[in-house]
Write a structure and sequence with these properties.
By secondary structure, the chain is mainly α. The chain contains 31 helices and 3 strands. Strands 2-1-3 form a 3-stranded antiparallel β-sheet. A hairpin with a 5-residue loop joins strand 1 and strand 2. Helix 14 packs across helix 18, helix 18 packs parallel to helix 22 and helix 25 packs across helix 27. The relative contact order is 0.05.
Length: 650
C-alpha cells in the first residue's frame, strides 16, 4: 500500500527544535544594531526556504491569503496551531542545508525561528494554558486523590515544566521583543501582508507565559516596543489589522502586561480556569501611565473601538472578558493626565464617540434584562431545594415536584440552575463595570456634554429609566434571592449608580424632555426611585434634591408632550419624517433630495454611511439643514398646542 504522510513530530521534538532555533538567535537578541540585520521586509518569504516555511495560504494581517494549491483541512484561523504545519517546517529545515539566496544569517534565523516558535512553543503554550482547569474540574467531581485527577495534574505539571524553564522563558521574552521591533520597522503595506501569527505571537506569548508562570512578568524587562506596536496597530482601527480576533489579542496584551494588579480583576475565563490574578511589571505600568501624547492619541480611541469589536470575537464569555478588560483599561487610563486629555479629544469625533457610547448603553440594557430574566429562575430553584421558604402555593408546588422527581430530572434542574448562575454572575459583573464606567465618564464636563448631543440624549434617558423600572417596578418583587452577594447582585449599588448618573444631567434643559419622550417613562418612576434611594441613604441630600427636581421637570415635560399626541396625523406631509412617520424637529436635506429629521439620519449613519433612499455614500457633512422648514414646523406646532390647551381649559 502507498505510504501515507509521516506522523507529526511529538511535542518534545518540536519544543527541542524551537529551543535550538532560539539559541541560534541569542547573539543578536536585544542588540539593536545586530537586529537591524533582520531584513525589514517580506522578501525572504519569496525564497525557496521561505516558501517552504511560510506557505501561501497563511492568514495575513490585513490581506486575503493567496489561494493554495493544496488547501488545508482546517480553518485558516486555526491553521497556525495545526500539527500539519510541522511538515512545512521539516521541509524548510531540509532546505536549510542547500544553497539559498543571499540573505543575511540574522534574517534567516529570525524568519525560521519565528515559524518554529509558532509551530512549537506557541502551540504548546496555548494548549497547556487551556488545560489548566481540567484537574480542578475533575477534583470537584471525584476528589484530588483520585487517579484521574492525579494523572491530569501530572500532565499539566509536566507540560509546564517543559515550557517554563528559566532559559526557555528568557529566550521567548527576548525573541518576542525582537518580533515587536521588527514589526515596527515594517512599512504599512508589508505589515498588512505579514503572516498574522507573527503579530499574534509577539503579544500572546508574553501573556500566556505570565498566565502560566506569573513571576515571569515581574522579572522581565519593560516592553516599550510592544506598547508602540499596540498603539500603531490598534490606533489605525481596522486599516492595518483586519481581524477582530487579532485586535482582541493586542488589547489583551495591554491589559495583561501594562496594568497594575490593583486595576485588574479576574475575568470570567480566569475565574473558570482557577487562575490567580495576573502579576504586574512596574516598568510596563510606568510606560503606559506616562506614555507620550502620540501613543495616547492612538491608544485611547482604539480602546473605545475595541468595545464594539467584542461582538465579533466569539462566544458570550469571550465577549464579556473583552469588555471587562476594556472597562478596566479605560478606568485606569482616565487617571493619567495624558490619557484623559486624549479621551476628551475623542468627543470631537462625534461618530466614533456615539458608536462607543451607544454600545455602553445598549449593553447595559441587555445585561440588566438578562439578569432580571434569570433571577426568578434562580429564586424558584432555591425554593425547590429549600434555600428559600415555600411561602405560597406556587412555591410549595415547585418544592413538591422537585422532591418527587427522579434523579435524572433533578440533575437536569440542577444543571440548568448552574447555567443560570454562571450567566447571572457574568451579567451582573459586567453590568456593574459598565455602569461604573458611564458614571466616571459622565462626571467629566466635556464627556457629559457629548452625552447630551442629539444622538445620545434619548438613548441615555432610556437606559436610566429601563434600569430604574426593572429594580423598582412591580417585577422587582420577583428578584428576591438567597445569598445575593454570591452572585454579585447588589440592587442598591446599581440603583445608586443610576441615580448619580441622572443627577449629572439634572441641570441640562433638554434632558427632562428626553426622559418624558422615552417609552420607558412613567410619571411615578423617578419619584419612586428618589424615594427608594432616600430610604437606603445611598445619595447625598444635594443629589436627592437634584433627582427630585429632575423628576418634577420630566413630569412637566410629559404634560407638554401630551399636547402633541397624534399631531403627526394632522400635520402637512412635508412636516413628517418619511422614515419614522413622526413630526420632524430639525429637518435636513439629503443629497438624494429627500428630507428627514436630523436625529433620524444621524442614527442611521452610525450603522451605515449611506443614503437610506439611494444607497449612495453619505457622510454627516453632506446633510443640509433647512432652517425655514424648521421654523414653519415650530410655528405650526405652537398654534396646534395653543388650540389644544384652550380646549382643555388651560
Amino acid at each position: 500500500p502507498p505510504a501515507g504522510p509521516p506522523p507529526p513530530p511529538p511535542p518534545a521534538t518540536r519544543l527541542g527544535a524551537c529551543a535550538a532555533w532560539l539559541r541560534l538567535c541569542r547573539p543578536f537578541l536585544g542588540d539593536e544594531k545586530k537586529e537591524q540585520n533582520a531584513q525589514a521586509s517580506l522578501d525572504y518569504l519569496k525564497s525557496d526556504l521561505g516558501k517552504a516555511a511560510y506557505p501561501d495560504d497563511l492568514t495575513c494581517v490585513n490581506v486575503a491569503p493567496m489561494p493554495s494549491s493544496a488547501p488545508m483541512d482546517v480553518d485558516s484561523d486555526q491553521e497556525m496551531y495545526d500539527d500539519d504545519g510541522d511538515a512545512e517546517l521539516k521541509a524548510a529545515l531540509e532546505l536549510s542545508t542547500k544553497p539559498t539566496q543571499d540573505f543575511h544569517f540574522v534574517t534567516r534565523c529570525f524568519f525560521l525561528a519565528s515559524r518554529a516558535v509558532t509551530l512549537g512553543v506557541a502551540a504548546e503554550l496555548h494548549h497547556t494554558v487551556g488545560m489548566d482547569h481540567r484537574p480542578h474540574r475533575a477534583a470537584a467531581q471525584v476528589g484530588w486523590d483520585h487517579d484521574l485527577t492525579r494523572a491530569m495534574l501530572a500532565e499539566v505539571v509536566a507540560r509546564e515544566a517543559a515550557l517554563a524553564s528559566d532559559s526557555v522563558v528568557d529566550d521567548l521574552q527576548a525573541f518576542s521583543a525582537c518580533q515587536c521591533r521588527w514589526l515596527l520597522r515594517l512599512c504599512d503595506d508589508d505589515l498588512r501582508r505579514c503572516p498574522e501569527f507573527l503579530l499574534e505571537d509577539a503579544c500572546t506569548i508574553p501573556c500566556e507565559l505570565n498566565s502560566m508562570k506569573p513571576d515571569t512578568l515581574k522579572r522581565s524587562k519593560p516592553s516599550p516596543d510592544l506598547l508602540k506596536l499596540c498603539a500603531r496597530c490598534l490606533g489605525a482601527t481596522d486599516t492595518l489589522v483586519k481581524s477582530p480576533h487579532a485586535r482582541e489579542k493586542l488589547g489583551k496584551a495591554l491589559y495583561d502586561l501594562f496594568l497594575p494588579v490593583t486595576a485588574k480583576d479576574k475575568t470570567y475565563t480566569e475565574k473558570y480556569m482557577y487562575r490567580q490574578p495576573l502579576q504586574e511589571n512596574p516598568g510596563n505600568v510606568d510606560l503606559l501611565a506616562n506614555a507620550s501624547p502620540e501613543i495616547a492619541a492612538k491608544l485611547c480611541p482604539a480602546i473605545l473601538w475595541l468595545f464594539g469589536d467584542a461582538e465579533h470575537i466569539g462566544d458570550i464569555y469571550q465577549i464579556a472578558d473583552q469588555r471587562l478588560r476594556i472597562a478596566a483599561l479605560i478606568k485606569h487610563l482616565w487617571d493619567a493626565p495624558v490619557h484623559r486629555a486624549a479621551f476628551r479629544t475623542i468627543v470631537a469625533d462625534v461618530r466614533a464617540f456615539v458608536t462607543f457610547a451607544n454600545g455602553l448603553l445598549n449593553e447595559t440594557n441587555k445585561l440588566v434584562a438578562g439578569a432580571i430574566e434569570r433571577l426568578p429562575e434562580i429564586r424558584n430553584h432555591q425554593v425547590r431545594t429549600g434555600l428559600l421558604d415555600a411561602s405560597n402555593d406556587e412555591f410549595r408546588r415547585l418544592r413538591a415536584e422537585y422532591e418527587s422527581a427522579n434523579d435524572t430530572r433533578r440533575e437536569e434542574l440542577d444543571s440548568r440552575h448552574s447555567e443560570h448562575e454562571q450567566h447571572l454572575k457574568q451579567d451582573l459583573e459586567l453590568c456593574t463595570e459598565i455602569l461604573s464606567l458611564v458614571e466616571m465618564l459622565t462626571g467629566d464636563t466635556a464627556v457629559a456634554k457629548a452625552f447630551m448631543g442629539e444622538e445620545l440624549r434619548s438613548r441615555l434617558a432610556g437606559m436610566l429609566l429601563s434600569v430604574v423600572r426593572q429594580f423598582t417596578g412591580k417585577r422587582s418583587l420577583d428578584i428576591k434571592i438567597s445569598n445575593p452577594d454570591a452572585y454579585g447582585f447588589d440592587p442598591k449599588d446599581i440603583l445608586s449608580r443610576v441615580g448619580r448618573i441622572a443627577c449629572c444631567f439634572a441641570g441640562e434643559p433638554e434632558f427632562p424632555g428626553a426622559l418624558a419622550e422615552s417609552g420607558y417613562y412613567d410619571v411615578e418612576l423617578l419619584p419612586r426611585c428618589a424615594q427608594t434611594l432616600r430610604r437606603l441613604g445611598a445619595l447625598s441630600s444635594a443629589q436627592l434634591d437634584a433627582l427630585d427636581k429632575l423628576a418634577s421637570a420630566a413630569g412637566v415635560a410629559r404634560e407638554a408632550l401630551s399636547l402633541d399626541d397624534g399631531l403627526e396625523n394632522e400635520a402637512p406631509e412635508e412636516f413628517v419624517d418619511p422614515l419614522t412617520a413622526e413630526l420632524m424637529k430639525s429637518p435636513v436635506k439629503l443629497p438624494s433630495g429627500n428630507v428627514v429629521d436630523d436625529s433620524t439620519i444621524r442614527q442611521h449613519l452610525l450603522n451605515e454611511l449611506s443614503d437610506p433612499f439611494s444607497r449612495q455614500p453619505l457622510e454627516p457633512a453632506d446633510l443640509e439643514p433647512l432652517p425655514d422648514l424648521k421654523k414653519r414646523i415650530e410655528e405650526w406646532l405652537a398654534a396646534k398646542r395653543a388650540e389644544r390647551r384652550a380646549a382643555r381649559g388651560g
